[in-house]
Amino acid sequence: MNNPSKILAIDTVTEGCSAALWIEGEIVEQFEETPRGHTQRILPMVDQLLSEAGCSLKELDAIAYDRGPGSFTGLRITAGMVQGLAYGADLPVVAVSSLAALAYAQFQQDQSSTVLAAIDARMGEVYWGAYRIEADGEPVLQGEEVVIAPALCAEVSGEWVGVGSGWGSYQEALEQRFQGQLSAIHALALPHAAAVASLGVIYLRRGALLSAEQVQPLYLRNNVAHQQRKK
Question: CB-based contacts of 125: which residues, under 8 Å, 6+ apart?
Answer without folding.
Answer: 147, 148, 149, 150, 221
